[in-house]
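Before a colleague's protein record goes any further, I have to sign it off. I want your independent view on whether this chain really folds as the tokens say. The record follows directly below this note.
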Amino acid sequence: MADEMIDLTNCDREPIHIPGLIQPHGVLLVLQDSNLEIIQVSGNTQKIICHQPQELLGKQLSDLLDVKQIQKIQQCLTGDFDSINPLHLSIKHLNKSRYFDGIVHRADKVIILELEPKKAKQKTDFVEFYHQVKGTITRIQKAPTLLEMCQIVVKEVRRITGFERVMVYRFDSEGAGCVIAEDTDQEMPYLDLHYPPSDIPKQARHLYTLNWLRLIPDVDYQPASLVPTNNPLTNQPLDLSLSVLRSVSPMHLEYLHNMGVTASMSISLLQNQKLWGLIACHDSSPKYIPYNIRTICEFIGQVMSVELANKEASEDIDYKMQLKSLQTQFVEALSQSQYFLDGMMQLKPQLLDLVDATGAVICSGNRCIQVGETPSETEVHALLDWMKPQLHHGVFETRSLSKHYPPGESLQAIASGVLALEISRVHHNYIIWFRPEVIQTVNWGGDPNKPVEVLSDGSLLISPRKSFKLWQETVRGCALPWKPYEIATVTELRSLIVGIVLRQADELASMNFELQRSNEELDSFAYIASHDLKEPLRGIHNYANFLMEDYAETLNDDGVAKLQTLVRLTQRMEDLINSLLHFSRLGRAELMRQPVNLNELVQQVITTLSITRPQTEIEFRIPQTLPSIECDRAQINELFTNLISNAIKYNDKAQKWVEIGYIQQPELNSPLSTTLPIFYVRDNGIGILEKHLDKIFQIFRRLHARDEFGGGTGVGLTIARKIVERHGGRIWVESQPDQGSTFYFTLVAEEIP
């Protein structure tokens, strides 16, 4: 169907753009840019323009063309070749009935002029051109579906050109092609047949994007070589990528012979500047299509290329609207959630519908949420590690994972198709969708495995297959392909999510600014509390004592008692202010993390408390050696001091005990699920009523009378919670009245071996 390579080891690299030959139905002249001197010609000039090649070299183009025609060509050099070609030219000293279509373009620092003979009456004006294409264009635009449009095009192109067979040949993402529309009277239909990527290799597909139309009037032609062989200015083969006469690869000619095709014409179909497919025309007899007819066909191909996007947009419109609705739901959920994973968790069922998948995985940090049929978490992490370098603009998609990722062969039943979306590489946020394999039968136009012959020198020779009859293959390991608009939906979703994240980042920055301002105000309050409030408070305290000392004889017992109460109140108020200052400073002080042996630290706390309470008989239990962790030693010392002293204080039993330990797995009622150690301080004291469990960590909250159980300010457990949270952990309590309490807490830090 197109130019093909010869050497298997040189697949996709055959230099088909520099064959050094042209097809002989026209001539080629290479001109120096500065003065239009002829410096290279095709070897068939004598036959077509009655001048020997050597005779033309070194001559000016003005020796062949008159002044008006030279001016036309010079105008081309400063304008757009596509809008000017073809030029209507005639050669001096030739019979005036000999006219030519002239096609001009630049390449390799030279001007290339190609001349194709024509009859004078072939000149087409705009009105004639309009009437030729008007009806065809209208039918193309009105076609309700893509396939119906393709069928209209093949019928119209066959009517205009007279080819025996006209097809629309569509490429898939891997370069293989399929005939999706056909008009022919031949016995063997090619409709719905597939062709491997090697039938039209990469370099040939590239040339189809440069030239909208490619004509081969007769595969049995004898090519005309260029004289001299190389471009004289570069001493390299002349680049004929844009040439309409460029000679055809011998492999492709053999391919056409094997198909029974003598004449061929291909019209490119482009979408988003990429080759979408071809309008392929075949005939069993030689067939030259005049340039004016080719122009009409080229125009039809361009209009069809424009309409491709419109037709594909109208396909599956209900499904596309559903995807848009789901996309909106995702955006709303994510915009209202503080964290990415929280928003995604709300829409787990819709996640599969978003791209018609059977399984999906949401990854955030080290967590993976699995929905539907998916590989294991270990397999997902391995796949994601492999896939990250393969991402293109944050997206990776394949319908056959095992072709790219060998371990994917064992996942074919659930993950042959993979579509991955990177939300944030920094925060490790990804969504991966999966589809299972769909075992299918593919109808090929002949065996796609080309025969390979080993030559005497050991090299490999590949030749085109000789049969194009139906050849069926069972294909495994492939899922249904991801449709372009499904990929577009998730790509757009990624942009919307990133937009939400950026907006949330702005809001967080604003909150941080407000928090900084609040902290500054808190600092100001702390200063006032420590200086402005405490100074008059000390004055009140001191003057009350002075009154009692200086006027004790004057005051009666009631007056002295009131002054003593005033002294106690000022002392309590100072204790409250000091506690508040300590709590405020604790939240802003920088953590000084270091390795700390908790076993030694707890023993020191117990020793200190035993010295301060020598009259209290209490048993301290440490069932296992406590681990070493990274933490702020001073703050953790205060944490254990507060919890153990409370356990001692709030105990009315005759035999008191306090147990300090840790567990590696959470107990039944733990609000956490972690493998980090969970520490606890347990006692057999008075316990706490259930209705008070959520209040005990509030600042200045006391559950007993002020002077009961040794008094206090009610800030100790609030400070304990602050210390735990600053270390990244959490604290909670379990308790039963009269049986005791257990305070659990985590300190998010790795154990030191």
User: Anything to note?
Assistant: The two ends are 69 Å apart (CA to CA). The CA atoms of residues 59 and 650 lie 115 Å apart.
